[in-house]
Amino acid sequence: MTLDHLPPDLRRTRGCGEFRPEHAGSRAVVMGWVARRRDLGSLIFLDVRDRSGILQVVFNRETVPEAHGRAGELRSEYVVAMEGEIVGRDPATFNPAIPTGEVELRAARLYILNDARTPPFPIEDHITTAEETRLQYRFIDLRRPEMQAKIILRHLVALEIRRYMNEKGFLEIETPFLTRSTPEGARDYLVPSRVQPGCFYALPQSPQLFKQILMIAGLDKYFQIVRCFRDEDLRADRQPEFTQLDIEMSFAQPGMVFGLIEPLMQAICGVANQHWEKEGPRQKLNPPYRPIEVDTLTFPRLTYAEAMSQYGTDKPDLRYKAKIVSLDSHVSAKLAHESRIMPPIVGLKFSPDQPRSKTFVKTLIEDMVIPKAHSSLPDLKARQSEIGQDALFVDWCILGEGAKILKDAELALALRDKLGATDGDVIFLGAIRGTTPLRDLHLPHRCFDILRGLLANHSAGYTPQSKRFLWVTDFPMFDWDEEEKRYFAMHHPFTSPTVETLDLLETNPGAVNAKAYDLVLNGTEIGGGSIRNHRQDIQRRVFRAIGMTDEQARQRFGFFLDALEYGTPPHGGIALGLDRIVAILALEASIREVIAFPKTARAVDLMCEAPTTVSPAQLRELGLKLEKSDE
Description:
This protein is an alpha+beta fold. Helices cover 27% and strands 25% of the residues. It has helices spanning 65-71, 131-136, 138-141, 145-167, 208-216, 254-283, 304-311, 329-339, 358-367, 409-419, 443-456, 536-545, 550-564, 578-585, 616-622; strands at residues 27-39, 43-50, 53-60, 79-88, 103-114, 171-172, 189-192, 200-203, 221-229, 241-250, 293-294, 301-303, 324-326, 341-350, 384-387, 390-398, 426-433, 466-467, 469-473, 478-481, 486-489, 516-521, 524-531, 571-577. The strands form 6 sheets. It has an 8-stranded mixed sheet, with helices on both faces. Helix 7 packs across helix 11 (443-456). Mean pLDDT is 86; it is low at 369-390.
């Protein structure tokens, strides 16, 4: 049966989850999926579900024998339409777990719109089904209230973004999906052209050049909620196609960008609060939802150098307040002499939420994963782990138990004072052991960043429910590629160098800083932006610094370099990862949980089985021929 076969006046009154006691006594038409059927003989109870929630429907054999008989045929996930009267339930049978728990539909007619196979997994929250199965049957997975709540949250966040940006005078402008390949950074996805044989479009990694051209065009304030594509190695917070909020404005300074984004983040968190206050009880969240608290209206700021020295990462999680401390020359000299280690020497104080044993601390150290290696930290006998030609030193002691990192009482007192430690605290030390040239000056800091993450859940003062935003600024303009023996842009090559370091572009590119900034939330980078190069002479110097000749720059970016010569205003902006933001607000670690149709970690769509091969005729039409793989 289809809707066309229903009586002309039969139209859905409202969603299943929208009925309340004030609707009692009214005629209603309900349509949805059978979530559950309970047959008590003369009475059959259905739980009928749609996006808005669940409503109980009752069929009485004495009053509606025909409808009751048909209700006996129903199975899980049958699609049905029912007509009847909304009535109040007996107080003894109230169901406080659902918003409609005080009413039910006393059905008079039943229409079976479609039958259904038995689903491959339960359509309920908190299931343990493998992710591969859920992605294969995504059309079933998305029926689960938990998944629908996250998709609705994503919609509400996007709606709030558009409201806010319009209020601030920004224009939403679409940019092309089929564009020119500009290989600098991640690999492009290429699209062959049928009408231009041998030529290819590229799917945009971001609308970077187009949004800058919009500023050159005088449109002043642009934004777009845009799909982007990058052919890169995947993980929980990456997808081959993803969505970002893209923003650009003319005559901008970093402070103007910060002042635009901070209230927007406040507004988005407010939307999430309202959503989860409504959805939380229905989702039976465990633990129960707590309102999102944004600690300050103006987000704190750290330079890249400060973030690395204090936290060991350019995206620190400020919910855990412990900082990495660089030990002064007196302490460093003594440690280097006693333990044959070399600067930089760093320390970290851990104040546990309860007394901790030496075994607990030892286990934490052994669980640490060192950057650049897939091996755990050494046990306390060896106290070192080889990484290439570098050796990492880690040591610790619990104050107040008579244990000292070294026998030197003066040094132990100096460490206690420098780290602000008291009895019961654990002191960690990290450094490089050996005499080989150090390739990574921040290696001890990076290890202690991982240690901070392990310690956080056991630390006094950790606030897991809060949302701690942070701006990280003054990034290095370039990083060194050891394999290619050249510099590359840390953000992208259209970022403007700082005035103070501009003259180092030709002589010392590694010392040049960029007018670049990242927005960090709870240890996750959720956005990045910069003030752009608006002068063509500086843009050419940047290209040369990354080993790109004028001819190569002209070949890749000729249209953009031409545009820069026609009166380009100073401009800048930011791109925020919508998937990551929504995942954090939905208390999810993976962005796949907030994307309707995501890919796996191998960039495969399990539902529609993409990518797949195409026919020889399609290849011939495009002028393509596949080479046989050695595999």
